[in-house]
Amino acid sequence: MIDTPRREVAASGTTGRSLIIQLAAILLALAAFAIWVATANLSSTERATLNSSALLAYTGEHLALTFVSIIIVLTITIPLGILLTRRPFVRASGTILAIANFGQAAPIIGLVVLLAFWLGFTFWTAVVALVAYAALPVLRNTMIGIQSVDAQLVEAGRGMGMSATSVLLRVELPLAVPVMLSGIRTALVLVVGSATLATFIGAGGLGLLITTGVNLFLPSVLVSGALLVALLALFIDWLGRVFEHYARPKGL
Predict the structure, then answer these.
(1) CA nearest 130: which of 207, 57, 244?
(2) Which among 27, 102, 126, 181 is most buried, taking Cβ atoms within 10 Å?
(3) What is the DSSP letter of 122?
């Protein structure tokens, strides 16, 4: 029978190989795309749209939308999720989750357009829509992670004279980290994919390649935009998996 340390090492090795394979596949696909752009017989319009400086600018806008949105999501939902697991606020958890669920249940394109007519066709309107869309996974997983901590461990901490804050910071949150990180990774991937719709309200991003390809009937530009969004989503997912792997408390 394999003992616990050996099982942990084996699992860690398997995860590490999986991460290397995923990164290698992403880089290989990106290299193949770069070679195709450099050698393909493209029209002047396609070449102007797919030049390296334009692609970097679109990617930078997409990343800005993604990371600004996810930082706001984490700033709001993690403290809120913790608060809703405290006894005085538990009753409000159902209502708050229902509100957060509405943001994700609504079609993201409708949410983006409606907010644009209310708040204006700007970068920050797209951020508001993305925050509303991505809040639920982080909020829900924060609550589930804390609520799933063994009550006996919490009571043991209190029996040792620890304050409620110390129990939260030293017992509940460390044990909830794996579930919380899974929710954050899900939110990141959702935001990367949904940020393509920001182009409809003039907020930029890689979605501009897709709309340009559709409007001008340029299949190569359309496919390039879709491919780059997919690769970016896979890369962000890879970063999330790396952080999840190394931030997970040892022994979990």
Answers:
(1) 207
(2) 126
(3) S
